[in-house]
Design brief:
single chain, alpha+beta, seven-stranded mixed beta sheet, 17% helix, 39% strand
Length: 121
Amino acid sequence: MKIELLDKEFCVCKLNNIKDADIAAEFVFFAKTDSELSLVCLQENAPKNAAANDSGWKALRIVGQLDFSLIGVLSKLSGILAEKQIPVFVVSTYDTDYILIKENYIDKAIAALKERGYEFQ
């Protein structure tokens, strides 16, 4: 399995209103529940009036389209990172998964995954 480090900085936000986000931006991940509205976006596109935000995240993207029948992809990756005490924030799309890691942990995370045989492009 190949992994790609995206050369961008991300922000995790809690919004009061979906209209606060630029949904035309390059990377926009929304989650809406009965109690919150969350947004993951590029740091440069983080809404200024967000209820809360946490910046300084880097993203690892699993390369290629993942079949829905695959089992344990995120479990294996997050397990390796957990062993090294690296916190993660995960976002999934229809095609693949993104693992967000705080910038100060990214080198350690890549080294840990390479140690376990994961390839980076």
